[in-house]
Amino acid sequence: MYYNYWFVFSKACEYGIKATIFIAINSYDGRRVSPKEISKEIDSPTAFTAKILQDLVRHHIIKSVKGAYGGFEIDKDTISKIKLAQIVNAIDGDQIYKGCGLGLQSCNEAHPCPVHDKFKLVRDDLKFMLEHTSLEELALNITSGASFLKI
Amino acid sequence: MYYNYWFVFSKACEYGIKATIFIAINSYDGRRVSPKEISKEIDSPTAFTAKILQDLVRHHIIKSVKGAYGGFEIDKDTISKIKLAQIVNAIDGDQIYKGCGLGLQSCNEAHPCPVHDKFKLVRDDLKFMLEHTSLEELALNITSGASFLKI
DNA sequence: AGTATTTCGGATATATATATCCTATTTATG
DNA sequence: CATAAATAGGATATATATATCCGAAATACT
Fold it and tell me: Where are the domains of chain B?
């Protein structure tokens, strides 16, 4: 019928993940970056991206410095400790781990939706992956040219 | 930041899956069902559900019979052959298998996004599950009381 | 044939996510 | 202290998904 596609993450979250990776890369070099630079690099709308950055700041995933020579950065030594799950959680919440695949309000072991068990496996895989993927490895794969932030 | 949650499927698709299961159950008893009955049973908006049913008809997943004593049904002997993947494909398209986790336009092995490989595993799991789950087993789990269509 | 019943499908309305704009606030520097 | 450069955040606009409405078409029965 429809337009829709796979929405593991919202657009906001996609931008948030890519932005955080780009900030990490620059923080290794002690460089702060602006929403303008970020959105150019990750191919996202600037103002919208700026909103998401604010949110990541509120969740203490990235740091912002106001005023001249300011910008966004991440403490070098926390980059290896930040997991993808934290970023996703900050922006899209934790329903990714809890929500029912068929939208039931209270879907659980005792009262499962038709696909509950089958989804559990997929969801647990996703959860494990998000919790075990570090920002550091994502950033290093970009700098090494093994992966890309846009196109 | 936001309102969002895990969107494996669109609402339309959630309704479509649940509706199809309910139609299957009734078709075993040779009973046709209306959008009204369906939406009551799966707790969905009637008119919107009706649209989705039309779409499933166009994709030959369910059959409709117009006029008095009409309604929706599924050929008994096709119920075991219909896979969850077909329903999802009809409503949400095939981007679920193709779309990039970070929204890149052309994300592939040669030009991967930062999470490409990690997502591949999750996605393949989901794909396998959808392609190997039959409408029959979903329907039987409802009739046996092992799973539920609402609440 | 007429009527009640039912799906079909276009038009429209509502809700939510995405995106933009503009001003206030903060801060480094001359 | 003034100025320029930056983030913060409220208000608003746009796009998309979700939901509703209503008349047209089809069909079984009387």
Answer: 11-143
Closest partner CB to B14 (pick from A102, A122, A126): A102
pLDDT digits (tens, 9 = 90+) for A99-140: 899 999 999 999 999 999 999 999 999 999 999 999 999 999
Nucleotides of strand C under 7 angstroms from a protein beta carbon: 4-10, 16-22, 25-29
For the stretch A29-40, pLDDT in tens is 999 999 999 999
Both structure tokens of B6: 């895990």
Fold classified for B11-143: Arc Repressor Mutant, subunit A (1.10.10)
**pTM beyond cutoff 0.85:** yes
Q: Do A10 and B2 touch (CB under 8 A)?
A: yes
CATH architecture assignment, domain A11-81+135-151: Orthogonal Bundle (1.10)
C-alpha span between B41 and A22 (Å, rounded): 48
Cα angle B23-B29-B31, degrees, rounded to a multiple of 5:
60
Mean pLDDT lowest among A80-94, B87-101, B105-119: B87-101
Number of residues that make up chain A: 151
Amino acid at B56: L
Alpha-carbon gap, residue B27 to B76, rounded angstroms = 6
